Amino acid sequence: MEAKLWAILFVVFFLSMLTWCSVVEAQSNTVSSTSSTVSGTTTVDRTPNTASSPSVVVNNQDVCSFAASGAIQTQIFGLSAGSSIRDLNCERLKLSRTLFRSGMKVGAVALLCQDERVFQAMEMAGTPCPYMGLIGIQAKEAWAENPEKRPDYDAWRKETITDAKVTDEEVIGISIGSLLFLLLLL
Known about the structure:
Layout (H helix, E strand, L loop, with lengths): L1 H20 L5 E8 L4 E8 L18 E9 L4 E9 L1 H14 L3 H8 L3 H9 L12 H9 L7 H8 L7 H18 L1
Antiparallel strand pairs: 1-2, 3-4
């Protein structure tokens, strides 16, 4: 959903740059005419139409989404778009709060532990996140046996696996070096 918001912002930015590059000011021409019988002034208004942003309504305060809309208008083309975007972290917090109020404290913590920041904080505090119904030291041992299920697995792998295996940076360096060597042979 965040990619959708970035796409909308990119389109709005691109079209605003098109507008900025061309002459956008509303043009008014005043024509004066004089004849022997009639004297007057005529004003011709050539203001471009306006693209209006659609209103995206999120009525309830208990909804984990927000609205985004925008519009751009040039002399030739007008575009407007709007959407509602889900806030997944807000949903996680509300679900966890509901589980906690229902007396499911371990379930509430387990749901929060799906966020890698919470997972790391719990680990640093010495209270590991629950693992398949296990808590405490048993959960810590289970996480150690199944590290690929950690929400922060990529960061954990970079920290713990150092000299034992070739890192991604070394693979890239070896690939670039091999390519340069082949170009040297040509």
